[in-house]
Design brief:
By secondary structure, the protein is mostly loops. The protein has strands at about 35-40, 45-50. It binds iron/sulfur cluster.
């Protein structure tokens, strides 16, 4: 029961946005960008944009999937298995 005159006030959520990196759509361009780094949390996976450290135009945790990005730079070499996202069904 709510007290009379009491109005709920939304509390800003300082957590990074939940990603869909493990839910089938993947991180998009961040997957093979040299500035992207996969961060495994207790219950979620996030993609950290390391460009955000030096360039305020980039979000620390971009909304995924990133379909195009002016900061994208291709990573050299193959994509490591831990960056590739969920395995495809057999
Ligand atoms: S520069 Fe763009 S593509 Fe690369 S990690 Fe950051 S947001 Fe993703």
């Amino acid at each position: 029961m709510r007290a009379a005159g009491w109005t709920p006030v939304p509390v800003p959520d300082s957590r990074p946005p939940a990603t869909d990196g493990d839910e089938g759509t993947g991180p998009g361009r961040c997957l093979d960008c040299r500035h992207g780094r996969r961060v495994q949390g207790a219950r979620s996976t996030f993609w950290l944009c390391q460009r955000s450290r030096t360039d305020p135009r980039f979000s620390r945790y971009p909304r995924l999937p990133v379909l195009s990005c002016p900061g994208y730079e291709a990573r050299e070499g193959p994509i490591a298995a831990d960056r590739a996202g969920p395995a495809s069904p057999p």
